[in-house]
Design brief:
- By secondary structure, the chain is of the alpha/beta class.
- The chain is built from 18 helices and 18 strands.
- Strands 12-11-10-13-14-15-16-17-18 form a nine-stranded mixed sheet, with helices on both faces. It has a six-stranded parallel sheet with strand order 3-2-4-5-6-8, covered by helices on one side. It has a three-stranded mixed sheet with strand order 7-1-9.
- It folds into two domains: 212 residues, YjeF N-terminal domain (Rossmann fold, 3-Layer(aba) Sandwich); 273 residues, 3-Layer(aba) Sandwich (UDP-N-acetylmuramoyl-L-alanine:D-glutamate ligase), CATH 3.40.1190.
Length: 496
């Protein structure tokens, strides 16, 4: 697991390291410079002719220290100060003075010449307003230059918490960041400006954030074996949960199949699909392992019996918005006291009666458009403030929210936010959400909590997408390929 920090959280980490642990700011700066040079060289960047563009703050101080270290290694270095002389931090003043004592002159304009590498040390993580005027011109000039491009801590112009471009931003091939990755280089569009991000240790201990519920986190591949419930030698199908999937209106057997198949691939013990009677034959043929319980119309008593027999309920995939679908969803949400995941049409139906889920044992998986209907906010606002949107829904209802996007957020009551970084553009296909519902449902059936299943499920879903993309490329992956890739990911996990 790794932490993804905002600018404010990173400053707290800096301050604690300096004042509680007694590590001087200049020591942290020197470590940052040493690590940056190390990463540049390990990345194979040609440092023969290096332009280092520095601002007034400590990011600029990092840049001047990097210029000195590169100079001492024999590289030709061209440091340029583009900041405000009167706004320089004390550390930046010191680093400029040291560099000049080594005989390196500091310019105040970017000269026309061929540079092998352009290093951005203008702003760092502190940008909160749009960049205009002189600074905007400088960044645009840096972007136009040929040569490799590296950013120190974060590309200048990228908002450290939201990933927004603040007017203009430096486009890096490589970003060297310190202690923890910044949220802005993980969220879009910031991650596209950061290029490859390398996190380095400069003496700020990430463990200081582990009990802070305001700090976002994400998973890494090495976390997977600790997330997925292990199979027990002495077990039976009931050990791994009985699932009820209320999915698939007439003509939507595919959604029912994909969600149920994904649940079986993820380890659920027994699955009953409650679906429109038109889907019975095709589902029984495609998935003979499942119990198919068809309905011809709304039967409250029969629905309740099915819920009573289950450990976990999933409702909504391909359900439609017919009168029968509305009754099925409403009764399920009102009656079910067991863990219940609601997706797709189930969320759309709930958008007009959100009070039904307040205080319940629910996990919702809306994409941005479904979330817009649910909380009555424009998609653009939700995309720009996804953590706030998910958090508001969680506080209002007490449910767990899996807000789906290229960077999916999982929010749960009184827990840190999770931001998923697995997955890829190949997964942008119809049916991928049904697969995610099946994965999360299976993890719930195996005893995981709603929040745990949501986070692990999103992560496993993305890993399956990565595996499918490696096999078939970024264009040809289907939702069926995702379900087939689940077993490959879990098999490799067991073998590791």
């Amino acid at each position: 697991m790794r932490y993804l920090l905002t600018e404010k959280q990173m400053r707290v980490g800096d301050d604690r390291t300096i004042h509680e642990f007694g590590v001087p700011s200049m020591v942290l700066m020197e470590r940052a410079a040493l690590k940056s040079v190390e990463v540049l060289e390990e990345a194979g960047m040609d440092c023969s002719e290096v332009l280092v563009v520095c601002g007034s703050g400590n990011n600029g101080g990092d840049g001047f220290a990097i210029a000195r270290l590169l100079h001492l290694k024999g590289y030709n270095v061209y440091p340029v100060f583009v900041g405000n002389e009167t706004s320089r931090s004390e550390e930046t003043k010191q680093q400029m003075g040291i560099l000049e004592k080594y005989g390196v002159s500091i310019g105040n304009t970017i000269e026309k010449r061929e540079y092998s590498v352009i290093i951005d040390a203008v702003f760092g993580i502190g940008i909160t307003r749009e960049i205009t005027g002189h600074y905007a011109d400088v960044i645009k000039q840096m972007n136009r230059l040929r040569g490799g491009k590296a950013a120190i801590d974060i590309p200048s112009g990228i908002h450290a918490a939201g990933g927004q471009v603040m007017g203009t931003a430096f486009r890096a091939d490589l970003t060297v960041t310190f202690a923890c990755e910044k949220l802005g280089t993980v969220l879009f569009p910031g991650c596209e400006y950061a290029g490859r991000t390398v996190v380095t240790d400069i003496g700020i201990d990430p463990r200081m954030f582990e009990n802070d519920v305001t700090v976002c986190h994400t998973y890494e591949l090495s976390d997977l074996p600790f997330l997925i419930p292990r199979r027990r030698v002495n077990s039976h199908k009931g050990t791994y949960g009985k699932v009820l999937m209320i999915t698939g209106s007439s003509g939507m057997a595919g959604a029912a199949y994909l969600s149920a198949k994904a649940a079986y691939e993820t380890g659920a013990g027994l699955i009953r699909i409650y679906t429109a009677e038109e889907n019975q034959t095709v589902l029984q043929t495609l998935l003979p392992e499942a119990i198919i319980k068809p309905y011809a119309g709304y039967d409250r008593d029969e629905l309740r019996r099915c819920i009573d027999q289950a450990d976990v309920v999933a409702v909504g995939c391909g359900l439609g918005k017919s009168e029968t679908a509305v009754k099925l969803l409403t009764e399920t949400v009102s009656y079910c006291k067991k863990p219940c995941i609601i997706d797709a049409d189930g969320i759309n139906i709930l958008s007009e009666q959100k009070e039904l889920i307040k205080g319940g044992n629910f996990l919702l998986t809306p994409h941005l458009k479904e979330m817009s209907r649910l909380i009555k906010q424009p998609v653009e606002e939700i995309a720009a403030k996804r953590f706030e949107a998910a958090g508001a829904l969680v506080r209002d209802t007490g449910i767990v929210c899996v807000l789906k996007d290229a960077r999916t957020v999982v929010a749960a009551p009184e827990q840190p936010n999770y931001l998923n970084t697995s997955g890829n553009a190949a997964m942008a296909k119809a049916g991928a959400g049904d697969v995610l519902t099946g994965i999360i449902t299976a993890l719930l059936a195996q005893g995981m909590t709603l929040s745990g299943a949501g986070k692990a499920g999103v992560f496993l879903h993305g890993l399956s997408g990565d595996a499918a993309s490696r096999k078939k490329g970024s264009y040809s992956v289907s939702a069926t390929d995702l379900t087939e890739a689940i077993s490959n990911v879990l098999k490799k996990m067991e073998e590791s």
